């Protein structure tokens, strides 16, 4: 099975090129004003020029209005919309219908019972993204660099398609893959030198660690 790898919160052409050259399958753009990774729809359109081949663009939004999503879709034309707020199954349905694109719904996980939330979204969202619960006081629902217990994923139905997210980095991705064997992984702050600043050496190091872990598992 091919492992999908999403590098999220990209905001420079250099970081996008590095991520794609290293083997990213997905690149994510954050549309959330409070985030250090925030980009405007117009900036995302410029950055998309760097995205080549089969690499998919992901628009990450938090409880976004139709007006804002209209602008993002008009500018970026993302392949996937990632809903990272408190969107309901009905809202996921609306977004899919209005924009005719797959939706990845994010959930915060800290214990096994947190997976109960996904029930009403099964067959509605195209994919899930399982992220860690934000630390107390964080203004960001994602991009916090914290992990949850990856062993919890072992209890999930095998037909659930998801990306593992939250606090991944070159040092821990080997353990994460070994313990959860996910269909996809997602990383943001683990390849940054400071909040919102992607580091090309850390991106390359992350992919190297992924490839090493895959070779060991083969
Ligand atoms: O990254 C952000 O700033 C962000 C802000 C608001 C909503 C979602 C956000 N990130 C979504 C992602 O998909 C991140 O890659 C994910 O939370 C993992 O981040 P990290 O723990 O830093 O690897």
From TrEMBL:
It holds the Pfam family PRAI. It is an enzyme of class 5 (isomerase). It catalyses: N-(5-phospho-beta-D-ribosyl)anthranilate = 1-(2-carboxyphenylamino)-1-deoxy-D-ribulose 5-phosphate. GO terms for molecular function: phosphoribosylanthranilate isomerase activity. Residues 5-208 form the N-(5'phosphoribosyl) anthranilate isomerase (PRAI) domain. It comes from the Bacteria. Keywords: Amino-acid biosynthesis, Aromatic amino acid biosynthesis, Isomerase, Tryptophan biosynthesis. The keyword Cytoplasm does not apply. InterPro entries: Aldolase_TIM (IPR013785), PRAI_dom (IPR001240), RibuloseP-bd_barrel (IPR011060), TrpF_fam (IPR044643). Pathway: Amino-acid biosynthesis; L-tryptophan biosynthesis; L-tryptophan from chorismate: step 3/5. Its EC number is 5.3.1.24. CDD domains: PRAI (cd00405). PANTHER family: N-(5'-PHOSPHORIBOSYL)ANTHRANILATE ISOMERASE. Belongs to the TrpF family. This is N-(5'-phosphoribosyl)anthranilate isomerase. The gene is trpF.
